[in-house]
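Have a close read of this protein, sequence plus structure tokens, and explain what the tokens say about the fold. Thanks in advance:
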Amino acid sequence: MHLLERDEELSWLGEWLGDTEAGHGRVVFVGGEPGIGKTSLVTTFAATVGDAVRVGFGRCDALVTPRALGPFLEAAAALGIEVSEDRDGLVRGVVDNLRGSGPTLMIIEDAHWADEATTEVLGMLGRRAVDLPVLLVVTYRENEVTVDHPLRVVLGDLATSASSAWLALRPLSLDAVRTLAVPEGASPEELYQRTGGNPFYVTEALAEPGTDVPTTVRLAVLARASRLTPSARALVDAVSVVPGRAERWLIDAMCDPSYGDLDLCVRRGVLVADEGTLAFRHEVARLAVETELGEGQRRELHGRVVDALTQRPDTDPARIAHHADASGDEAAAARYSMDASLQASARAAHREAVRHGERALAVRHALSADEVAALQTRLAFSLVASDRAEEAIRLTSEAVAHWRAAGDELKEADALTVLANALGSSGRTAAGMEAIARSIELLESHPPGPELAAAYTRLASSHMLARDRDTAVAWGERAISLAAELGDPILLGRALIETGIADVMDQRFEGLARINQAIELGRQHRLPSLISHGYSQIGSGCGELRRYDLAVPALIDVIAVASEHSLEANRRYGVAWLARCRFDQGQWDEAETHARHAVSGSTSMPYIRFVALNTLGWLRARRGSDDVWPLLDEALEIADAIGHLQRLWPSAVARAEAGWLDGDLESHVALLESTFELATECRHSGAMSELAVWLQRAGRDVVLPEGVTGPFADWVAGDHLGAAVGFRRMGSPYEAASALEAAGDTASLREALATFERLGAARAADNVAAELRRRGVRVAARRGRNAGEAGHPTGLTDRELEVVRLVAAGFTNPQIAAALYISRKTAEHHVSSILVKLGVSSRTEAAAAAVRLEIVPG
């Protein structure tokens, strides 16, 4: 079949498919309005590729709630690829197969109807496509991919990738419409004006002259259907209630059509037969017929679909749930929606898990009370992952009450553990600890199992967050022992991480060995969430302790792993903590970029928002901006709700410094004092000493406990110059300059002024300059930050700009190290940071981005 005005698109697809012979793949997004010919383009192209290329189609259906991973599972099956039905296992299986195979064409149609997990897999494969012999073609309706659509995130992530391409299909020109219209005796100009050149509308209008667009499609399809025999029309009606394609066995079960009926429907152009399926030529046409059905007829047909699907083994429950809901069969809708929710959750399709679960709970009277409670418990995981922790708390609280009334202690304990996780995610830590303590009390009266190991780990984590090291390690050791006995790598890894970070936060850095052991377990068992969690704990924990040499590499690693595996919460937390570390290190442009990103888009988890908002407000206070307090106030609200020193300490200090710079430190003394008491209870020397500095600046007498050391402790002891040296070694230039300012001698003030001006610390610089002028020292007027000082728009530092130019020139890490007289490890860190800032996943993509951003010439 020849497609009018699509030769250029077909040529591009052919050229990109040719690149796969050399192992260089690409993901191509084919977008356009309904009826523009996306399916015609990809099916025509697929028919021309020849036997040397494997071809696999996967289609997204217009179900009320999509099938989790449905299109990729379908495409993998068509390609003969055996994959597991979880997201990461599917990606792993497909990638491993593609690496060992020749050129492959994989087509995913109608991605605007895709489930969340499918879009995540699309992003994961899209980032890997450059090194695989695959052309991944994705069709979607541009007008249906709204700002909050999950596909929008994928499109944005891959926008800068050298392995991505876009084909935006345009309507037919007047000349093309003329080619179609003249043989039919129609007026090309009138037809073009009525259809706008939309290929589907053009062909439908020609098939039924005299109708008007936009009603032409509905009227044309219904007119043709009305001229069929009654039995053929019954066949069309049956197909109309099945989104996508209806299998022949399904249609046979619904209405047992004759071959004559099938032939008539196809010859009249009402239906299209393809590989044992029947479908309308377009979804718009299917809806035109379905909406004409009477309510009773529509319900009866959907009921027949349910009867047929439930007789087939391995039918996706999401598909059955769709038809059960439409048929009015509440019992079937509840049961299969529940099954679909559990399946979607297992596939990490959390949005779909929630939608299916909510549908099942809407008709909970059709389920047993035990089934409702079990669903509520499992649904809580997806609700928390979807940033809906309060709903998870409500559902799990109901489940706990049910199992308690039923006298089932094991299930009550399981629900309590899930409830504790939801409470912790919402910042209600004390309530979470109560729930987990009750869970353990119940579980310990039964033989030990994975539920008890998970509860021990959760309690260890809660005490670690409260900075109660001894209690955290005690529970963590019990979790490690039981998890090892059970042979569960996930439970063991989590227990190792929580125990190890409890040691690290007590400045016992030997705890890092346990976290690294867990990360290695994650690599061995292909558990990216475990790897990501380990790096996240190192990055945030060591960032809090100002060990940037350990924190920053771990944060870059967590961002890379979490981005690759779509672990959004871990990725954002890594970005937020990278913002905080760059802020402490004086890299303020980069810090602001990361902090803004961490809270962009949908609402982040409270602990993510806290780190980003507190950092952003603190930074703006130092720069002399006006929009400081709304950010710091929201951060304090979160810190108060959580109640941990981990959050209250940086909030108290940020507010104290902002008040100091405003000339009103006294208003913040009460928070400093209460937080200092908490830090003393937790024996946290870093928090005690930093809070003590601000209490001392507010005129309060502060005595630090014996054994508290570090630059802030030196400051409190009056050794400001020693503190400045310590801060320089630590990598905190602003704090070093502040210590010099506190030293008070003219030489120290001059040095502090130079640092403040270099950083862009407007208010501190003005204060020091005013003091120097009072002493009769001539000080030049402070210059505003010019474009050169503001850094590159991407957030790349001057050194990183040098590195990315060498990357674009093809230098390896050892060659970069030699060229810039830096260590190989430093070169690796620069390259990793560049990939994060440019939003790419390979050196090739970084080079392409450097050309596009005019960092290097094209």
